[in-house]
Design goal:
mainly alpha; 84% helix; 0% strand; 5 helices; 143 residues
């Protein structure tokens, strides 16, 4: 199970690195230079991803219950993890806090206030998403 977590983390970091400019450009473009809109867009992006991941998990757990075999949940939970984890990695703080997120948003054209608002709004939701992903994986594969 540890190797699965490490593989998922590597996958998320690689895909997040490849998609960062596009995702941050969407956030900056939708913000129109307003910190409040940047915060709403960043939080909304993370909440939308979390909601979609939650629906994948519900579908997986419904499959497991229907077929009376817990491993059937993996057919929906694993693809949900592979799609959602790169998005949540983009908003998580690193060793320097949100400095790298703010820097990437600044590279995408955001001002300092807009970048700060987006980073601080998306980060806590991404942390909840990380808890959801780890919980879903443990429930799916710990049986």
């Amino acid at each position: 199970m540890i190797f699965g977590f490490l593989g998922l983390l590597c996958w998320a970091l690689v895909v997040a690195h490849l998609a960062a400019k596009r995702v941050y450009a969407v956030v900056v473009g939708a913000a129109h230079g307003r910190p409040s809109r940047a915060a709403a867009v960043a939080a909304g992006l993370q909440l939308g991803g979390l909601l979609a991941f939650g629906l994948c998990c519900l579908a997986g757990f419904a499959l497991a219950r229907h077929f009376d075999a817990a491993w059937h949940a993996a057919f929906a939970v694993v693809p949900g993890c592979l799609l959602y984890t790169p998005l949540l990695v983009l908003a998580l703080p690193g060793a320097g806090g949100y400095r790298h997120v703010r820097g990437d948003l600044g590279d995408a054209g955001a001002g300092p206030r807009v970048a700060r608002a987006a980073a601080w709004a998306g980060g806590p939701v991404a942390f909840l998403g990380m808890i959801a992903v780890l919980s879903a994986l443990v429930v799916t594969f710990d049986t």
